[in-house]
What we know:
Keywords: Exonuclease, Hydrolase, Nuclease. The protein is of the alpha/beta class. It is built from 10 helices and 15 strands. The protein has helices at 18-37, 57-72, 94-101, 131-149, 258-268, 288-298, 322-337, 339-349, 355-367, 369-376; strands spanning 2-6, 42-46, 76-80, 106-107, 114-116, 119-123, 154-159, 183-187, 193-196, 205-207, 225-230, 237-242, 248-254, 276-284, 303-310. Residues 317-323 and 372-378 have low confidence and may be disordered.
Amino acid sequence: MKFSHISDTHLGQYRSKKEREDDTYDAFKQAIEISIKDKVDFVIFSGDIFDKAQPPNDAILTMMQQLNLLKENGIESYFVLGDHDQPKVVQNPIHALYSSLTKVSHHLEDGKPLYFKNVLLVGFDHQMPGHDIESLQEDFKKIDLVAKEHDGHKIIVLHQALVEAHYHAGELNANDLPKNFTYYAIGDIHGKFGPKKYEFLGGPLAYPGSTEISSTEAIKETKKGFFEVDISSTEAIPKWIELDTRPRFEIETSVDELHAKIDEVISKIDESRKPLVNLKITDVHDWKSIQQELARLDEHILDRSTNLEYDKKQYPISLEDTGNIDEEFKRLAIVNVGQDLANLALETLYPSLNEKNKHEVKEIIIRNFEKFKEECKK
Length: 378
């Protein structure tokens, strides 16, 4: 017996271009197609199925079609809700949507045990830090007793960040989890993590990560996919399945080598599936010197993020050099937010400050200028 563990599909997320939204649908369809081809017995979705609590129609249609496809092939599916799936207010119509989903899938909620043959399945929707997490830990103790008495495989499904997987985002420690499960199917972290085995847990813990780059992630050459987990023996054995996502390139080059580097990248591009590019350019003297090269690259790619590292010799910074700071601040603003917004900020809002506040703002800009430049270029 085996099952697929898929997470953080973020169906319907929009990132600058409709093609990027479609990429989320394509990755999701691939995961379902592979699961059917590999004859898994059931599928688990560990949260953030949709990117928003009110997803676009295409996202809803894609999800329903794929769940029905699983059903037609005799494959059951189970899900928990992530923080992106859940409404911020009770009146949000997402509740009606998930009522429809439960006609073709099974919602694992509130730790209520469900069974697939002799497999115990338990899940909890995403809980916010604070009181909800404390309540969740109490629920863990109760469900652990149920798992302890079950003879077959026991799977718990969560959408929470663990400190072990992401130190800064962690809401729980792995040691907080119930101890008697044979597989811990977790979502929320977008990078693949695991499978990890801990002496204090009854089986492997795994985050498959997102099936596509999310709108909050930088463009990286990281592989995306999901886990197929073999539970035909007493031990759960996860196997990583890589998805064929849109090509991505991470490029670092100096201004002097930019032309040749772009030629190299263009030579690798399949024009029928334009890639995403994360470009870092060092030793930049001025923006105009690279605009033509970037325009040439843009003809062959779908989207890019650009990080410019300016030649520090060209940009000495001191508290006395406020004139240069003002000019460079304005130039960066125009490049990153456009002429209209830059004018609004610098010619309307900034002058309206009183002299004391204006001086404080200028000092803040100067002190954080290098950091500000880097942030603007991401």
